[in-house]
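We close this part of the discussion by returning to an individual protein. Part of our work consisted of pairing the sequence of a single chain with a tokenised description of its backbone. What the numbers capture is local backbone geometry rather than side-chain detail. The amino acid sequence and the backbone structure tokens for this protein are reproduced below.
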Amino acid sequence: MEVAIIIYLAIVILLIVSLWKIYLKANKPGWACLIPIYNIIVLLEIIGKPWWWLLLFLIPIVNIVFAIWMTNLLSKSFGKSIGFTIGLLFLPFIFYPILGLGDAKYNGPVEVH
């Protein structure tokens, strides 16, 4: 039981550090990833979407679709492919550190056509 708690805390800390670095790479304050709601507003700035997208998270089912879309836009903002987006969704404890702690460069918001 204690080992599971230590592993869980290690993963949580790894993800926080990774998100902090992702925000810094996008020229945003790293601490912003720790503040509920504000972290989503800053993430929306990183991916180039308006703040009112936050309101879409209040609508059931729509919130899941937009969370996946935001993850895809984050991936593309760092020059990654749809495969990387799938990794971010299903193996976040591996792919967020790759994005934040690796050599990925922030390219700015991606134009969606």
Observations:
- Helices lie at 2-25, 38-47, 62-77, 82-90, 92-101.
